[in-house]
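WARN no homologs supplied; continuing
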Amino acid sequence: MNIFEIERSKRDADFIKQNGELELEVAADIIETYKDVPYVGSLLKFGKVFINVKDWCFTKKLAKFLIVSEDIDDKIKNQFYSSLSQENYKHISAYLIHLLSTEENKAMIMGSIYKARLMNRINNNEMLRLCSVVARAFLPDLKSLPDYLEENTNISIEAQSIIH
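OK structure emitted
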């Protein structure tokens, strides 16, 4: 699985974003209803992911991550993809998927960090470093960052874009 390939495929990304919040039972009903339809398509291809609870949870996290950057123009995303070497393309995608697989509640924060990278506010190393910090941080501390920002206005633009 490659997070960039999913994002590049509008159909796959839309399916994940739209169905990422479905309850497990609803997803199972969808799969059961459409299992005999001759044209299987992406619904069942991704619907089968919901069968396994762990995969279902990951799909929810991936949806939250993708939703954060959906307002970024495709041209900007494509510039980012083409700026990556083949090695970085694979490494960054695998790293983000690994981090997303561990933390559901932090997926939107990591999505904001990814969005900051797409907008060239941070570089690849900063993105990976910040996502690692988020993955290891205590969630209530992360949620209190906006309060910290209000008290301390001398904070960098990069930090402001990630906090909000």
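The chain has one domain: 3-163.
OK
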